[in-house]
Amino acid sequence: MRGILHQPICDILGCDYPVLQAGMGGVARAELAAAVSGAGGFGCLGMVREPCDLIRREIAEVRHRTDRAFGVNLIPAATDPDLFTEQLKTCKDEGIETLVFFWDVMPEAVAHANDLGMQVLYQVGSVDQACAAEAAGAVAVIAQGVEAGGHVHGTVSSLVLVQQVAAATDLPVIASGGFATGRSLVAAMALGAQGIHCGTAFLATTESFAHDLHKQRVVQAASDETVHTDAFVINWPKGAAVRVLRSEVTNLLGDRLFAHDPNTIPRHQIADEEGKPIYRWSTDSPLRSMQGDLDQLALFAGQCAGSVHSIRPAKEILQSILDEAHACIERNGMGTKLS
Ligand SMILES: Cc1cc2nc3c(=O)[nH]c(=O)nc-3n(C[C@H](O)[C@H](O)[C@H](O)COP(=O)(O)O)c2cc1C
After folding, report:
1. Number of independent structural domains in the chain
2. Were 298 and a residue from 22, 203, 232, 266 both cysteine, which residue would form a disulfide, CB within 3.0 to 4.6 Å?
3. What is the pLDDT of residues 248-300, one digit of tens each?
């Protein structure tokens, strides 16, 4: 049965199962990435705009916890170019083999990573961007549907997008946005993907660096309690949309969910992280290391929050996805069709 789920992307990444943990900024630190990779999935450090010292420390910590492969997530289009160059060099120096990029496809960023000997998976939100990632030299594309949590780059649902991306590129495709169960892994494979990329499901784990308040809110949320908006945009380019849980803060927006400008939003500090001010309407989400009015921050989560019912170790979540996928394949007699 493992043969059915062990897709070519697993050999590209060095994992057993095609379940990729999304590199969530702040949330996906060494403890989570190591837990996922150690259990046979593909863990990823969320290092968007992080200083190189932290990247170095987190990479060392993952290695201390597991000898399995893992990746590092960076966002070229939302990072100062000098810092981004330093981040790439740090990853290279630390022996990272796989990077996961997101947002606007920047061909020069892929070329730079490839020149340094690292492979790139690009998460995209449209067929055009998938083709751009392929042309730029990515080894796989992650097709993100609009139901995803965190930053959302496209407007089309996973059900529609994944199969279109699979038809449009020759690269392995990974489905992202709304995938938290074994049935959804099987569905992704039926759509032409080789695996799934999960954020919300791995946010609600004992190992994630999200604050407990955020994890609890994900567990309590129903699937119709998320909001798609570009209001949480301080630190990101104008127009960058996110999906968050509905809250008292999102209720303040009324019908004005879009057209917010990061340059004109007043900086109003509502929390702090070890002395660093955290502003309302920033892209910071509540972390273990923060204090303040954390329920007013961006409670990133996808529509699949409604399928997350408890906070569990990442290994248990991965195992239930695999068990459910195997059962679903067997029940539907799909073994030969998906392999
Ligand atoms: C809390 C949170 C933080 C995220 N941060 C990042 C990030 O830093 N970089 C990135 O590429 N994607 C980030 N994402 C988006 C994920 O890569 C992925 O597209 C999304 O989680 C998939 O949808 P799902 O939440 O339904 O699993 C984040 C998602 C969440 C939930």
Report:
1. 2
2. 232
3. 999 999 999 999 999 999 999 999 999 999 999 999 999 999 999 999 999 99
